Amino acid sequence: MKALADVEPAIALGPLDGRYRGVTAPLVDYLSEAALNRARIYVEVEWLIHLTTNHVLPGAPELTTAEVAYLRDIPESFGAAEIAEMAEIEAETRHDVKAVEYFLKRRLDAAARELGADTGLIHMHEIVHIFCTSEDINNLSYAVVIKGAIENVWLPAATALADQLAGIARENADLPMLSRTHGQTASPTTLGKEMAVFASRLQRQLRRIRGTEYLGKINGATGTFGAHAVAVPEADWAAVSRSFVEGLGLTWNPLTTQIEPHDWQADLYADVAHFNRIAHNIATDFWTYISLDYFHQNLAAQGSTGSSTMPHKVNPIRFENAEANLEVSSALLESLASTLVTSRLQRDLTDSTTQRNIGVGLGHSLLAIDNLRRGIGGVDPNPAVLARDLDNAWEVLGEPIQQAMRAAEINGATGMGNPYERLKELTRGRQVTEKDMRAFIKELGIPADVEARLLKLTPGGYVGLAGQLVSYLQG
Predict the structure, then answer these.
(1) Where is the Adenylosuccinate lyase PurB C-terminal domain positioned along the sequence (predicted)?
(2) Class of 393-464 per CATH?
(3) Which residue, of 17, 101, 278, 471, has the fewest CB within 10 Å?
(4) Superfamily for 27-127?
C-alpha cells in the first residue's frame, strides 16, 4: 500500500487541520507554530525598540522613525517565505528561540538595502535578545497569542452562542412546557425560562473569561534581574520590565522563577472548560428535547442524510458532534490547567510541549460551539406537542393544590390535614384527568376564593413567574 505520509500536499493527522479546518482555521493566526514564531519576533523587536527609545542602554544608537517602522514590519510581513526560513535556521540551531534571534539579526543586516548604509540597525546585533532567557520571550509570546485567540476568535463565537440562546429565551418566555425532573413529569415551566437558565450560565462564564489577566514577565534566567543589575546597574530594571510588559497589553508579574508560573493560564483553561461543560449540558438537553419532539428539526435547515439505511431519519448530529468535541476540549484544557502550574524548582521544560496543545484544546471547543449553534439554528419549538403533553399531565397540579391547602390551614381553614398524603393517593402511579382533579378540589371544603383560584388552574397555566424571570437575562 502507498504510504499516505508521502502524499503531497501533506495530509493532516488531526481532524482540526483536516476535516474541520474550515471552522478552526482562524485559530491558526494565533496558536499555530508559525503564529508563535511571529509573536516571538514581535516581542524581540519590541524589546529592542523599548530599550533603545527609552535610553536604557548607554551608548546604544537611537532609532529613527524609519528604523522603527522597518523593525515593526518584520513581524507584520511574516509569511510563507519567512516560515520556511525559520525552519531552516532552527534545523541548525536545534533551538526555537535562538532561531528567532538569528532570523532577526539577518533582518538587521539587510536593513541597509532599504534604509541606506548609514542605518544604525546594522550595529545592533548585540541588543537583540539582550538580558533575555528564552522564557522571557516565550511567556510574553504565548500571552500575546492566547489573548488574541480568546478575544478575537473564541469569545465572539462563544458570545454568539449565549446570545442565540438568550434570543430563544425571550421569544419563548411564555411558551408553557412540561418539566421532567429525573426524567419524570414535573411542575411546568416555560421553554423560554429553561433557555434563559442556559444563557445566564454561559454569560457568567463569559464574564469570567473576559476578565482574564494575561500575565507576563521579562526578568532573566531566574527572575532576579541578576545580569541586568550587573551590566547596567543604573537602570531601574523593574520599571523597565513593567513598562515593557504593560506596553504589550499584558499584566506585569514581578515574582517569577525562570518561567512565568502559568497560573493565569490555568484559570483561563478551567473557565473555558467550565463553559464547555455547560455547553455540553445544552447539547444533551437539546438532543433530549428533540427526542420528545419539543423541538422539531427543520429538515430544510439540516440539509443532511440521517441514517445510511433508514431514509426517514434525520439524526441530531450537530448536538452529538458538539458533545464529543466538548468532551475532548475539556479533557485537554483541564489537563493543561492541572499540569502547567507545576515546574520543578526554578524551571523544567514540560510546559514546552504542553503549551503547544493550547490551540487543540480551544479548537475542539470552537468546533463544538459552531456545531451547537448550527444545531440550535436548525430546530424550532413545537407548541402542539408541548401543549399535548401538558394536557395529559394533570397530576402535576398536585403540587400547587397541596401548597394551597397548607397555606389555607395556616390561615385558619379546617379539614386541610395531610395534604401531601392526600395528593399522593390521588396522583401517584395513575393517570389523572382534568375531571378527577377538579372533583378533588371541589370536595376539599377549601375557602371559596382559594377553590376558585385552583379550579382555574391548568397544567399549561401553572408556570409561576417563569415568563417574568427571563427578563433577568443580561444583554
Answers:
(1) 343-463
(2) mainly alpha
(3) 471
(4) Fumarase/aspartase (N-terminal domain) (1.10.275.10)
